[in-house]
Design goal:
The protein is globular, with a radius of gyration of 20 Å. The protein is an alpha/beta fold. The model has no long low-confidence stretch (mean pLDDT about 95). The chain folds into two domains: about 240 residues, TIM Barrel; about 70 residues, no CATH class. A hairpin with a 6-residue loop joins strand 1 and strand 2. The termini are far apart. The strands form two sheets. The chain has an eight-stranded parallel β-barrel with strand order 3-4-5-6-7-8-9-10, surrounded by five helices. It has a two-stranded antiparallel sheet with strand order 1-2. Helix 5 packs parallel to helix 6.
Length: about 350
């Protein structure tokens, strides 16, 4: 096993973490068996969120009696201190614990700081003083917010999309976190399903010494795949490097991070979600994205002016209009399959 320190937190973890978003899609007993098998196989870092429906509850059920042996990270999407406190108390109850190791602001559009009117960071400080939070952290999809969080010195870890399809912008975030002793947690290490070879992805992550990937798992075979990485590591072979090089050439242009820099759209398309709908359909319960409300949003793509405004504002150089059209086609195919 490869044990590393999570930034300057003093927390030692297995480098390969468990991302608990996908366990929403399986039963409580199935999830508990999967989580316990992950722990028994060497994983000790588990990442969930208040927004992941019953994911927290499943973690609490699975780890009853052994909670002190593992590290739990969860998130709040609250926009003010009062709502954050409600989320925190609910998370503690669902997780069946009296403290959370890594408590993360969940993809806010701004960088919460002390003294702000919303009271978010100040409430987190109170909870930390009470022993209910051990470390205050943040997740994001926006480069500007991530950079501000790193520079602020207020956060112990940053969670950001990062895979071998990422570009120099994300590499700069990793380097900045390393310089400041800040932990870097990689969400979407399989690029939301675009990367199909988990061993190649793990081999890339093995070379990123300060990065903790959280692998989204919902099936036994997926877990066994990453437990083999935990047991034996994942060497960067010439074959895996060749696969990575090919994937970078073929797929990098299709990886929308959902950062929202492309917004607003002149005809009202919710670009930051519509341009990555195919990825979300793979990762979360499809039913949540196939509602009439989302169908209406996807229909808005028909009004695209192809003005190029979104592509011009994309910091990752994506061909956003083409992504919208591709996701539009995929969406209705999935909807037909689920009708």
């Amino acid at each position: 096993m490869s044990r590393i320190m999570l930034g300057s937190t003093g927390i030692e973890i297995e480098k390969n973490g468990f991302g608990a978003l996908p366990i929403q899609r399986i039963s409580k007993e199935e999830a508990a068996a999967l989580l316990r098998r992950a722990f028994e196989g060497g994983m000790n870092y588990f990442d969930t969120a208040r927004a992941y429906s019953d994911s927290e509850e499943k973690l609490g059920y699975a780890f009853k009696g052994i909670r002190h042996q593992l590290v739990i990270a969860t998130k709040t999407a609250a926009q003010n201190g009062a709502d954050m406190r409600k989320d925190l108390e609910t998370s503690l109850k669902m997780l069946d614990t009296d403290y959370i190791d890594i408590y993360q602001f969940h993809n806010p559009a701004f960088c919460p700081k002390p003294g702000e009117a919303n009271g978010l960071y100040d409430e987190a400080l109170k909870a930390k003083a009470e022993g209910k939070i051990r470390h205050i952290s943040i997740t994001n999809h926006r480069l500007a917010v991530a950079r501000e969080a790193i520079e602020s010195g207020l956060y112990d870890t940053l969670q950001f999309p990062y895979s071998y399809l990422s570009g120099p912008q994300e590499e700069e975030l990793v380097a900045a976190c390393r310089e400041r002793g800040m932990g870097f947690i990689a969400m979407k290490a399989l690029a939301g399903g675009l990367i199909r070879d988990g061993f190649a992805a793990a081999a890339f992550m093995e070379l990123q010494k300060d990065v903790v990937p959280i692998w989204g798992v919902q099936r036994d075979w997926e877990l066994e795949h990453f437990l083999e990485v935990v047991r034996q590591g994942a060497e960067m072979t010439p074959e895996r490097q060749a696969l990575i090089d090919r994937d970078r050439q073929e797929l990098s242009g299709d990886f929308c991070r959902g950062c929202g820099y492309c917004m607003p759209c002149p005809v009202g398309i919710e670009i930051n979600n519509c341009a990555r709908m195919s990825l979300m359909l793979r990762r979360a319960p499809a039913k949540a994205w196939l509602t009439e409300a989302w169908q209406e949003k996807m229909h808005m793509i028909e009004n695209c002016l192809h003005c190029g405004s979104c592509a011009a504002k994309c910091p990752f150089g994506l061909d956003t209009p083409r992504l919208l059209q591709d996701n539009y086609r995929d969406y209705w195919e999935v909807l037909a399959e689920n009708s």
